[in-house]
């Protein structure tokens, strides 16, 4: 057996663990593994060279502790998915033909794709073309596939944010400031919610729960009246300020991307409360560094389970973590909808009982009667 593996999209802690598990399990069966460089671009021929390498246990042993990815990655390139005139999602036919030619020429009998939502969509299109593909979900935002309890990279990101906020709190207390910490989370607020609970944040603002800025101000002022010195506000980049997404423009190419709500929110809070405020954008620190043990183990397990699925000729599926077990579902189900924070979930109710403010209620409504939380773990 000759099988391949690539990772595409944003990097995150735990990718190398997947690669190590995949290679180890493959070689224990006497198989060979080809690793493609820089995402799906590695499937395309290049003049005077190649964009892949043979991966062996000697090359991948103990890389589980390293952040990033030994194969490199990209969020752009020739494999962008677009909708054709018939309303069907596709990759450019010429690009797809070149990829299929590479796979055939190398004699690949399976391809594992590590990636987020966009990469999984491309993997799904490859599968529809008849290629033997398995998708391995990866995102620090934990928003890929409702059927999976966690994706690797998430716990590492929460650990980084938690440590950062713990450090920020000490200086906030010294100066009696409001500190606004902007974290990643375009569609969902999992990082903000988990790190907010772990650090005893005062305010957590996420895309799933619309907030009124005046409610946040009123709640902050109520806490200041009790003598509380510092106020910690954690906001996901995809949260809406006055109902609007906040974006920043790239000076070089004019493209806009999410970001900037921490800055805008900080200035608004200082103006409306009169309390000195600062903001901190944690940015790509959330993606970098060594994975925490949970993500190392989950990555290893995903890599090994992918090989087991290949052994059974089970393709066109995505791995998922359900409870304590790694299972699989069809790729199209995994990408059908994102995994969002539920407003009436047990975790949100836990946060509310701890006194965390989501900005959707006034101070006198914070302990008003609410429906019972849904009977779900998160």
Number of strands: 15
If you consult CATH, what is the topology of the largest domain? Rossmann fold
Mean pLDDT: 92
Largest sheet strand order: 3-2-1-6-7-14-15
CATH class of the largest domain: Alpha Beta
Please identify the structural class as seen in this structure. Answer: alpha/beta
Task: Please give the count of helices.
Answer: 11
Spell the H/E element sequence.
Answer: EHEEHEEHEHEHEHEHEEEHEHEEHH
Q: What is the end-to-end distance?
A: 40 Å
Shape: elongated
Major β-sheet, in short?
7 strands, mixed
Uncertain runs are: none
Estimate what percentage of residues fall within beta strands. Answer: 15-25%
Number of domains: 2
Please tell me the CATH architecture of the largest domain by its name.
Answer: 3-Layer(aba) Sandwich
Question: What multimeric state do the chains show?
Answer: single chain
Helix content: 25-40%
Determine Rg (CA atoms, Å).
22 Å
Task: Name its key features.
single chain, 378 residues, alpha/beta, Rossmann fold, 2 domains, seven-stranded mixed sheet, four-stranded parallel sheet, 15 strands, 35% helix, elongated
